[in-house]
Amino acid sequence: MASSAYTPSAAAPAVTPISLKEIAPWAVLVGLLLLALLYFVGAEQGATSLISGENVHEWVHDGRHLLGFPCH
To answer: For 51-61, what is each residue's pLDDT tens digit?
Structure first.
């Protein structure tokens, strides 16, 4: 059998680190969006409801059951 050796032709590019100052605003935004989603899936019904009606409850109904929140 013929032997083939791998010889890289170019060096791998250097990885530049991302500073915490660049990530922090995005992390806060994502955290707030996740908290809002958790509220609507977990608590937007009944006495704690901020939005009147049953629309939000019906939109996130299956998500409640999937995540184990009591619904009925």
So the answer is: 777 777 777 77
